[in-house]
Amino acid sequence: MSTETPRTLTEDGVEARLSELLGQERFTPPAPFAAQAEITDPELRARAAADPVAYWEEQARQLRWSQEWTTALNEDDAPFYRWFEGGRINVSDNCLDRHVEAGRGDRVAYHWHGEEGETRDVTYAELLDQTARFAGALRQLGVQQGDVVGIYLPMIPEVVVAMLACTRIGAVHNVVFGGFSAGSVAERMEVSGAKVLVTADGSRRKGKTTAVKPEVDRTMGQLDGLEKIVVVRHAGLDDTPMTDGRDVFFDEVVAAAEPVDPEPLDAEAPMFILYSSGSTAKPKGIQHTTGGYLTGVTTTLRQVFDLQDDDVYWCSADVGWITGHSYIVYGPLANGVTSVMYEGAPDYPHQGIWWELIAKRGVTKFYTAPTAIRAAMKWGVEHVAPHDLSSLKLLGSVGEPINPKAWLWYWHVVGGERCPVVDTWWQTETGAMMITTLPGVDDAKPGSAGTPLPGIDVQVLDAETGERVTEGEGLLAIPRPWPSMLRTLYQDPDRYVSTYWSRFGETTYFVGDSARIDADGYIWVIGRVDDVINVSGHRLSTAEVESAIVAHPHVAEAAVVAKADDLTGQAIVAYVTLNGDTEGSDRIEAEVNQHIADRIGKLARPKRIVWTSDLPKTRSGKIMRRLLRDIAEERDLGDVTTLADPSVVTTLQDRWGAGA
Ligand code: PRX
Question: How confident is the model at residue 360 (pLDDT cuts 50, 70, 90)?
């Protein structure tokens, strides 16, 4: 059956239409969409705001609890908040057993598409069977409630099984993005004290297969606490090294294990840790707990993606990021949705693969990142035009500010001007979406995420005074706890308090983003105010990249800054001073890049390295990163007299210009 219907989309036609639309400030929900939307009540926000805790209790009741809570929100220990205290619940029970018991076991949970065109449908009943068995296997491997299980897997159904199996027995998962190097996985396993790691024989990317297990062995062999490594046979590699007594194959332990029942867990039982970049080189172990997190992701996905029974939903993120946790795994499964899961890259085997899959599967709701939309714009509408995208009903964006042109392209080219576009602002720390438009109710303004969701309060505060700004620019802050919020930083409560709860006091969460709020209360996120770089929606820390660079034996000093980039939002620029008389060369550049790839991952390699004999420093020796950003973005530098040696910046400007 051919699903391809030609559309009359041409580059010129699209360009002309986008120019017309650029002047349009608001996009009201398309009438046919609004008519069928789940949420049509414009008063929902106001009702929730009248009693947010009661509102969240109402949402939590839509899940299956084995014991109801006694206290909905305990603020005694702020900012260590406790939600649904006394309640008992199991995440995998809500994501799987509940649906199977309701007779929906045959429903497809994931239409999985492999890179080489393979497909695999996994039903809810199959997912339950695998999960219950793998949970049994984990127990046999010695995993107990509260133990940490590392997961380092490609985008395959087994990653979902592994995560859910942890939640079934109360183990705490620590998923590491497959694009990070084995070295950074080792670091995360070590600091989290992981007992078991679930990984794969190898991974596939754009037609190339890379052996993963030998790398894991190389970097993780010495970790004392790591007792077992479970290996998923995915890439068809038959010479996978296995250590007797430590390593087991996933399929074998699943086949041998008895399925186990879901364990009723305390609502505040730790559910997972996800390491994310902050202002220092040490990643933060963001810790989420069970009942509140599940309530947050389940509610927000249902409301914002206007879930309907016949939806085919696709979130193109990777499961190794929070978007994957919340909106590939837990939100969709708790809502009983059918999803598409794609192993590959957006341009493999060709640049139209996403649109081909949308047409093939009849995807109704699609969630992606601005950087992917900008890449698709660059590749051209000819890759979209051949595919029938008429099944789409709603489009979502996440991860970074979406520029109006990309928003309009998404709306016009992908959504055919029928589908609301929801720009969702949130963070690893918030667990679930926080600011966006309710698609059947609110007008969208391209470039603005919208307003806080029902039951959520996000404000813009003046950077100096901390006073609330009702119209204008300031810092984002959250003055009230919400169920899916992080509870602490793993084994580092002091850093939790100092990072998030000191700038505006102990009860107002400091976001780390600057934003503008307009007269309608719409929030326009500007970007990070700390040293976090957002490359293609991937969060990296300047300090982490710098520390990887200076670990290279020829490097004396390095400063890393972000530069605006048309495609990736931000790009990394590194200014590097080499030791002694080592000269910057292509060879050293390749070595430094390889070094970063080994320590963090390829995604952290700078777009440009500038060699310099010195960095701009104040007289007290502090590197002035602001000037380095100005140089990379070719701005006027203004007054540089506070520098110890002002001539450094002139040299750097010349060098930047020469290499541009
Ligand atoms: O700066 C904001 C940006 O991404 C940061 C959070 O990154 P991370 O924890 O990796 O989570 C990304 C996926 C939820 C935020 O502090 N950000 C995220 N979504 C948006 C955004 N900036 C603007 N608009 C968004 N929709």
Answer: very high
* Same-domain pairing of 258 and 337: no
Pairing relationship of beta strands 569-578 and 608-611 according to DSSP bridges = parallel
CA 90 – CA 94 distance, rounded (Å): 6
Same domain assignment for residues 320 and 427: yes
What is the distance between the terminal CA atoms of the chain, rounded to a whole angstrom? Answer: 50
In this structure, which residue's CA is closest to atom 13 in ligand 1?
399
- Residue 388 to residues 128, 421, 655, Cα–Cα distance (Å): 33, 18, 49
CA gap 493, 373 in Å, rounded: 38
Measured in Å, residue 350 CA sits from the centre of ligand 1 at 28
The residues that bridge with 446 in the sheet, in sequence order, are none
Q: Are residues 542 and 470 in the same domain?
A: no
Strand partners, 174: 150, 273
Domain encompassing residue 379: 11-62+286-528
C-beta of 533 in contact with ligand 1 (< 6 A): no
To 5 degrees, how large is the angle CA 346–CA 350–CA 353? 55
Task: Please choose, from the candidates 605, 591, 538, 601, the residue with its C-alpha nearest in 3D space to the C-alpha of residue 215.
Answer: 601
3-state SS, residue 152: strand
Question: Going by C-beta distance under 8 Å and a sequence separation of 6 or more, which residues neighbour residue 192?
Answer: 148, 150, 174, 273, 275, 285, 490
Beta strand extents in 453-568 (DSSP E only): 459-461, 472-478, 488-489, 509-517, 523-528, 532-535, 538-541, 555-565
Q: How confident is the model at residue 278 (pLDDT cuts 50, 70, 90)?
A: confident
Compute φ and ψ for 552, nearest 5 degrees.
-75, 135
Contact in structure between 449 and 525 (CB atoms under 8 Å): yes
Ligand 1: which atom is nearest the Cα of residue 476? 16
Tokens 């994310």 found at: 276
At residue 423, the pLDDT reads 98
Distances (CA, A) of 588 to 133, 549, 561, 583, 585: 49, 11, 20, 8, 5
Answer whether residue 279 is part of any domain: no
The verdict on residue 154 lying in a domain is yes
Which residue minimizes the CA distance to atom 11 of ligand 1?
A: 427
User: Ligand 1 centroid to 344 CA: how many Å?
Assistant: 23
How is residue 239 annotated by DSSP? Answer: -
> Is 616's C-beta closer than 6 angstroms to any atom of ligand 1?
no
Task: Identify the burial level of 416 via C-beta atoms within 10 angstroms of its C-beta, where 0-12 means exposed, 13-18 middle and 19 or more buried.
Answer: middle
Residues in contact with 218: Cβ distance below 8 Å, sequence separation at least 6, in sequence order = 182
**Spatial separation of the C-alpha atoms in residues 638 and 630, rounded to whole Å:** 10
Rounded Cα distance, 657 and 538, in Å: 28
Decide whether any atom of ligand 1 lies within 6 Å of the 536 Cβ.
no
Domain end marker among 476, 505, 528: 528
DSSP strand pairing (532-535 vs 538-541): antiparallel
Number of separate domains in the chain: 3
Tokens standing for residue 502: 């000191």
pLDDT number for residue 6: 56
State how far the Cα of 187 lies from the Cα of 185, in Å rounded to an integer. Answer: 5
Atom 7 (ligand 1) nearest CA: 427
Cβ proximity of 70 and 268 under 8 Å: no
Q: Is residue 298 part of a domain?
A: yes
Per-residue pLDDT tens over the stretch 193-250: 999 999 999 999 999 999 999 999 999 877 889 999 999 999 999 899 999 999 999 9
